[in-house]
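Why should sequence recovery work at all? Because a backbone constrains its sequence more than one might expect. Tight turns favour small or flexible residues, buried strands favour hydrophobic ones, and helices have their own preferences. The token representation captures these environments compactly. In the example below, the structure is given first.
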């Protein structure tokens, strides 16, 4: 799986983009980035399906890499006020985030005014990083200069992470990015500071090392599959990070990953009442935990324990 630090390499999401190195450098798109072995998001405006029982129908998805934006950090924008900007040779992929309040029946993320092929992607869960199977992820990949949009129905409140990047090799363009809702809302940026890679942030339940918590993924036949978010801050010197779930009565998948797309571990066992994922020699920092129904309609209560 990917190493913790991305230095002198591209994090080329499915958009074939350039991303930000941990040392602050930028590298051109087209360089292979580390990847996990899990399936990447599909081509539709719904997150990638997780593995389902053999009796269910699943759709194959293309491979890809995480999208990570931390240097510079994403820019916060408001709802109802378009943002005019452009990508450049110094920053091929531009990152934003928006805090969506409760009460929206729909949320539309739009990108237009293009002079070259740029793509739009929206993520929920962890607003610095889009990780496959960690958080929810919706791409839009129109070709050429056609407007891009992602429309979410009954979106949950919280932080949404937005990337605008080249659809082709090093495509550059000005653009207008907008976030609108029905019923219409207008909000200004909150001024909040995103959590750094060493700290938990986003709509998560924070766990302590050596601690445990009760959780539940409610069984609902929806897409994306229901899920629960957790995070633990790992101190220096931990030999192995272990995340364990017990008391399951339904099929849930467990994913663990750090804030840079490294330290990946998963347990996607079918059946049984427990799951366990371990990260050997974890680097210090925040590790995000995504517990998700293995397929639409899967759910269960559980207890989650973190040790190291």
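From this structural description, the recovered sequence reads:
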């Amino acid at each position: 799986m990917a190493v913790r630090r991305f230095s002198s390499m591209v994090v080329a999401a499915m958009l074939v983009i350039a991303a930000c190195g941990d040392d602050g450098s930028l590298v051109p798109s087209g360089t292979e980035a580390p990847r996990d072995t899990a399936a990447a998001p599909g081509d539709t405006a719904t997150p990638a399906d997780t593995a389902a029982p053999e009796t269910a129908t699943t759709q194959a998805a293309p491979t890809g890499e995480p999208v990570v934006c931390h240097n510079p950090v994403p820019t916060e924008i408001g709802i109802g006020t378009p943002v005019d900007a452009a990508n450049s040779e110094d920053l091929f992929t531009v990152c934003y985030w928006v805090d969506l309040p409760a009460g929206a029946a729909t949320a539309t993320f739009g990108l237009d005014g293009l002079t070259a092929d740029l793509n739009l992607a929206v993520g929920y869960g962890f607003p610095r990083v889009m990780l496959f199977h960690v958080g929810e992820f919706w791409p839009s990949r129109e070709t050429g200069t056609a407007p891009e949009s992602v429309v979410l129905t009954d979106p949950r409140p919280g932080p949404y992470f937005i990337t605008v990047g080249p659809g082709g090799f090093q495509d550059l363009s000005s653009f207008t990015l907008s976030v609108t809702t029905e019923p219409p809302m207008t909000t200004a940026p909150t001024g909040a500071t995103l959590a750094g890679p060493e700290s938990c942030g986003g709509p998560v339940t924070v766990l302590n090392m050596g601690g445990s918590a009760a959780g539940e993924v409610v069984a609902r036949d929806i897409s994306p599959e229901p899920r629960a978010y957790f995070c633990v801050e790992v101190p220096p010197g931990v030999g192995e990070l272990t995340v364990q779930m017990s008391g399951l009565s339904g099929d849930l998948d467990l994913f663990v990953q750090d804030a840079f797309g490294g330290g990946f571990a998963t347990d996607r066992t079918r059946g049984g009442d427990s799951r366990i994922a371990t990260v050997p020699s974890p680097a210090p920092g925040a590790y995000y935990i995504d517990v998700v129904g293995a397929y639409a309609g899967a759910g269960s209560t559980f207890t989650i324990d973190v040790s190291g």
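A few observations help interpret the result. The radius of gyration is 19 Å.
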